[in-house]
Amino acid sequence: MSRAFRVLEAVGQSPRGLTVKQIARRCELTVATTYHLVRTLAYEGYVMRREDGTYIVGLEVADRYRELVLACRGPQQVQDVLRRAAVDSGYTHMVGRFINGRVAIVACAEGMRSPQVDDLVAGFDDGAHATALGKALVATLSADHRWRFLKEQGMPAYTPQTLTSLEALDADLAAGERRGLHIEVNQFRTGLAGAAVLVVADREQERRVALGCTVPAADMMASAKTIRTRLVATAQQLAEALREG
């Protein structure tokens, strides 16, 4: 089993794909053993063979990750709180937490007034530096830990307004901590803004929980105080739901 995990990890770290011989070299296995492991993983759907003979991660991995995300969502009351907030405000609300060292959305309820963004759904675990939800969680890391986290995850520019330097992000996080609300405007998608607050500030990283909402960029500029008031109230309801769960 451990050898199969080594093979899967090697493939997962190589988005361009690997041949059986390349996998064997990286995992320090014989080609025959590697071929057997890869064939088994492919049969189970954990890796896929492309036309050029290389292997990439299969859809089964994504399915298992989604199951993990759903397991971390918490009790049904969490989804109920998000749904009520989405209906009352019209804005999409979501819960995020650290999963396997990454910031991931674990629950989401869509609001009619929020711009439609296909990426921001349960299971999404990229762009922590460019989303308000990600910022609320990244802000809980120590300076050294945050530097390592962002170096590993990267800080790609989703829009011209995305913060792509550690210094700029640190200043933005500090401002968010002072105001008690982390925000982003046009940093993840043009025309989209987000706001987020921390719900659970636990010593254990994996137990920290944040609540965020997405709104039209124009709404954030005009109604930031109202959005903050509603978000804080929803965060209190969410914290209670998590304690009861």
What does this molecule look like?
The protein is of the alpha+beta class and 245 residues long. The chain folds into two domains: 2-57, Winged helix-like DNA-binding domain superfamily/Winged helix DNA-binding domain (Arc Repressor Mutant, subunit A), CATH 1.10.10.10; 65-244, GAF domain (Beta-Lactamase), CATH 3.30.450.40. It contains nine helices and seven strands, in the order αααββααββαααβββα. It has helices at residues 2-12, 20-27, 31-44, 59-71, 76-89, 132-138, 143-153, 166-179, 217-244; strands at residues 47-49, 55-57, 92-99, 102-109, 182-185, 192-200, 209-216. The strands form two sheets. Strands 4-3-7-6-5 form a five-stranded antiparallel sheet, with helices on both faces.
Question: How do the strands and helices of this protein lay out in sequence?
Answer:
Elements lengths: L1 H11 L7 H8 L3 H14 L2 E3 L5 E3 L1 H13 L4 H14 L2 E8 L2 E8 L22 H7 L4 H11 L12 H14 L2 E4 L6 E9 L8 E8 H28 L1
Antiparallel strand pairs: 1-2, 3-4, 3-7, 5-6, 6-7
Keywords: DNA-binding, Transcription, Transcription regulation
GO molecular function, one term: DNA binding
Protein name: Transcriptional regulator
